[in-house]
Amino acid sequence: MEHDMGYDLEEALEREGLSRDDLKALRSPPIEGVPSTITDKQLACFLDACDKNIDETRKVLKIYYEVRKNGPELFSNRDPLGAPIQQCLQNQDYFPLPTTPSGYSVVFHRLKNSRASNYHFDEAIKTYFMTIDSCLYTQGPRPGIIFLFDMKNVGLMHLTRINMSSVRKFFSYLQDGLPAKLKAIHVVNVVSFFDKIMYIIKPFIHAEILNMLYLHTSNANFEKFYEEWIPKSCLPSDLGGELKSIDELHQDHLKEFERQRDYFLAEERQRNGTVVEESTEKMLRSLSID
């Protein structure tokens, strides 16, 4: 791939105890649907997410690319400067936070305003997945990743914007194809109708993921959260942290997104090239049989 991920591979291999021999082992035999141009930096994220288990890593790689191939509404046209993504970035906040003392990555998301008409579900999920990729791009493989959602501006009308097919694909990807170890999902400023949200999403969630879900109301005591999960030094000032405000952190990440544009475009070309290769192989096999 002409534009690789941005993290330091040598540092990550040493930090996470990953082996170059294992990276090599993932390439032979080739995995159907996985680009032959996949880079060591990409592979390292999967290997670490699967605790260095080669067979499991190969399985997750296959699922990852199958989900992306079968979900173009969530994984295609991922230009950070494109109008649909820009619309999301203007109406919602997305950014990775600094890694925690335990080494965990943290990805933050909330609605910037409460107007449901500004919320386009598929594009919002696409932009969230891009934010996860952006986090991996800069931070590389880590002991785990935490998702932090703020429901401050969520209203009942937002539920009418939900696409059930995309909900299913969202959880399929997070649970079976994510190139990172999901450690926890923290939801702050939980709304009173969260039970209705759970009714919608629960059929798609594994019990293991449900056990990782932590809910925090607006009047919750966050001291335990700061101590056990994300310290104030890694949180926005809006959530009692010592960093910049959510709006400022989001604006900073917009610049980072723009800097990563070449990678997002190259990654999509990488996947599309695999589809072309597979189509050509099928055509050649058909001609051979004839």
TrEMBL record:
One of its GO terms (molecular function) is phosphatidylinositol bisphosphate binding. Residues 82-247 form the CRAL-TRIO domain. Pfam families: CRAL_TRIO (PF00650). InterPro entries: CRAL-TRIO_dom, CRAL-TRIO_dom_sf, CRAL/TRIO_N_dom_sf. One of its GO terms (cellular component) is membrane. This is CRAL-TRIO domain-containing protein. It comes from Anopheles atroparvus (European mosquito). The lineage of its organism: Eukaryota, Metazoa, Ecdysozoa, Arthropoda, Hexapoda.
